[in-house]
Amino acid sequence: MKLPPEGARWLVSLRWAACAAAFAAIVFSDAVLGILPYPAPLYATVAAMVAYNLVFRFSQKDWVANPRDVEHNISFQILFDLVALTLLLYFADLPRNPFLFYFVFHMIIAGMYLRGLVPYVFAGLATVLVGGVMLLEWLRWIPSFPLRFRGEATEVWQLDRTYLTLVFLAFASTVWIAAYFTTSIRHYVDRAHAEIRQKEKLLGIGQLVAGIAHQIANPLDGLQNCLKRIGERVDDDPRLMEYVRMMSDALDRIERTAKRVQAFARPHGITLQSTDVNAVVQGTLQVLGHGHGGNVRIVTDLGAVPPAQGDPYTLQEVLFNLCTNALVAMPSGGELTLRTRTLGRKDEDQSDSVAIDVADTGVGIPRVQIEKIFEPFFTTRAESGGTGLGLGLCRMLISEMGGRIEVRSVLGRGSTFTVILHPASSIVASGPP
Fold first, then answer.
1. Which of 128, 109, 122 lies closest to 182 in space, CA to CA?
2. Among 240, 264, 288, where does a domain finish?
3. Cβ partners under 8 Å of residue 319, min gap 6
4. Domain count, the chain
5. Tens-digit pLDDT profile for residues 302-350
6. Which of 12, 93, 155, 225 has the fewest CB atoms inside 10 Å of its own CB, making it the most exposed?
């Protein structure tokens, strides 16, 4: 999910409020509480904040058009803010200043808007800035600016090594935890948003294709009736009857496919039942036939797996699609392996599930395309007629059966698509009592 560029403008607007709040806090601490012995550096820091905020404000028109420029701008804003906050705290008794943990806000902003390791870079920078100031003050290489609270001794407050260590550890752990959790939440939201977008695309495609399938189904009825009449007239010719039977089987298959496509646009379009996955694999190989070339060797490794929760016809369609893609991925020949197995306890939530592997030794899939191969209309075979719908529909069908498809691939060495289905016992467990 890409956050809008208005976020950078929001930071600029927020900084005006921060400048006003900092100025008010300095005035109140100096004039009313009288705890600031040297307020001048603080006023100078606030003036610098106003100055660079004006620069960001007037430079907005140059970067809002490019999202990457927006990220760079936000990075610079956070960088300047970290330095400004460090100076404000340094001139106001950083080790004892209660506003020390305001650095967390910048970690949250970085985690929301910046990608990769950049949020952790800023967490490290904040840790170095605060830790460096504490260390230099303790070594007395730089002057200290302690706050003068009422009832406190007038001599210079002595920095205690144990106190500084504990404060630094608390600060550093808070900053890094904030960066980690914000970044993790951002990644989770990105994945959820991508899944929602994909489901919306597939839903739209399903509705479109269902309408087309409905238009196909009507002429099919007429063709089947005509073919039935023709069969009645040529029943004395075995060869013509065989042709009629083959045409009738083909029309039945088209009709079943059209009905299945129409089911895509409706929820619960698949009836779950106890499915023998080994029988489905063998049926898929029969449909696949022997027209895949002499350089391709098909290997089966069918384990003693329990019945799975699924739809046999739909599962066969999915496996046929995966096998067809695997054969295309081996233009010079190779080995296609169909394997069934039961997942064990080490697979955590997949325990006792049934897995079907479709592995090839083909060209493989580049890592940058792994997440895109299930997106509608994404294909690397557009020139040879690929539509980019097959894998997306396969994942949707398996998802309707309560399962999922996983993929592993090594470029130049092949790919493995794994269909994971729940055991058939879960149908009874989830059904009505």
1. 109
2. 264
3. 280, 281, 284, 338, 356, 358, 419
4. 3
5. 988 899 988 888 888 888 888 888 888 888 888 899 999 998 755 555 5
6. 155
